[in-house]
Amino acid sequence: MAFNARKIYPIDTKPSVAIGIGLPFNGNAVFNSTYLTKDAIKSNLLNYFLTNQYERYLNNTFGANLKSFIFEQISNDSLSFLKDDIQNKINLYFTNINVEDLQVDSLPDINAVTVKLTYNIPNTAISDKIEITF
Question: What pTM did the predictor assign?
Answer without folding.
Answer: 0.81
